[in-house]
Amino acid sequence: DSIYEQGKPPGVVVSQDPKAESRVKEGRTIYFTVTKNNPDIIKLPDLAGSDDYDLYSRKLARLGLKPRIIARVPRPRLGANIVVDVLYRGDTITSKIKNGVPVEMGSTVDFIVSEEVLLSVNIPDCVGQTLDAAKFLIQTSELSIGAVIPDGTVDKDDPLAYVYRQSPKYDPNGIMRKGEQIDLYITRDEPQGQ
To answer: How far apart are CA 48 and CA 115, in angstroms?
Structure first.
């Protein structure tokens, strides 16, 4: 018999029956398993009904393939970890899978999968923060900085300014859509009670 083992040269004996050093009758046939020149070819299973990457990748691993995520892309209408595209040796094969794409056993199959997209975020609390800290907080919340309105004691670009008011104002249960703006009202003096 012959099998394919990745990384082993062809024609190498990997097992025999009966085992070496066994006592056998004269004329007994000895069976060898040797490595093949070429890997076995398997057809990729259809994605239908199992476009969840975790489920599909386990199915491929059982077939002797190596599934690998190469990219995650936002897809608001899909959940997280849904197969968006399948690639084999650099070619996109997603539309061909239902017909059974032949691949070599032991090879890597690449995937582009969806990532969860949150369309709304919590409103950050910028009051009491320096202007730079508030800008950082807004940007890391995936929101935009709106108008910066000084009270007359500072310039609108003063790094020593403090935020004394914001619009919309902070609400621990409030949410905003990603990309929406927060206006900042700044002053020279640090607000009391912060």
So the answer is: 20
